[in-house]
């Protein structure tokens, strides 16, 4: 089944496209969190970042890297939050990998990404070492 983003890629749904190359496309979010809120996607459907092939991931990051300053400058933003919601439990609403570039302004009141969680986890050093070893062994 084709996602709404694939329908945008195919031209079946209109979008305000701001950049396009062979493997990626970027367009303004239809439900923006701020002026200039832009989504960057691979043209092919991949549900999660884990599914994106290395070469497409490189292209995707290159597009994000290219667009962050363009978005910020276009709306005179002080900064931006750049994020992926990777999986439904993380807030991913469309099962097609997409990166949010959300312009940020001094007065927006949104806070840092850490504010999403309401506080830090209290994890002891032994558990942190175990987690680090697990991640390293799988990387």
Automatic annotation (TrEMBL):
GO MF annotation terms: catalytic activity
Region (Disordered): 117-139
Active site: 98
Residue window of motif Histidine triad motif: 96-100
Acidic residues biased stretches: 121-139
Domain of life: Archaea
Residue span(s) of domain HIT: 4-111
One of the GO biological process terms: nucleotide metabolic process
Protein name, per record: Histidine triad (HIT) protein
């Amino acid at each position: 089944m084709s996602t709404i983003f694939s329908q945008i890629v195919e031209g079946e749904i209109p979008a305000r496209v701001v950049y396009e190359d062979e493997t990626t496309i970027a367009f303004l979010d239809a439900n923006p969190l701020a002026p200039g809120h832009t989504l960057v996607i691979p043209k092919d459907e991949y549900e999660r970042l884990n599914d994106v092939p290395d070469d497409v991931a490189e292209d995707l990051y290159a597009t994000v890297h290219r667009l962050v300053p363009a978005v910020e400058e276009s709306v005179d933003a002080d900064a931006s939050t750049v994020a992926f919601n990777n999986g439904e439990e993380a807030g991913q609403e469309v099962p097609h990998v997409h990166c949010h570039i959300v312009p940020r302004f001094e007065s927006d009141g949104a806070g840092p990404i850490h504010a999403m969680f309401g506080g830090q986890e209290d994890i002891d050093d032994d558990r942190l070492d175990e987690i680090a070893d697990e991640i390293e062994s799988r990387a």
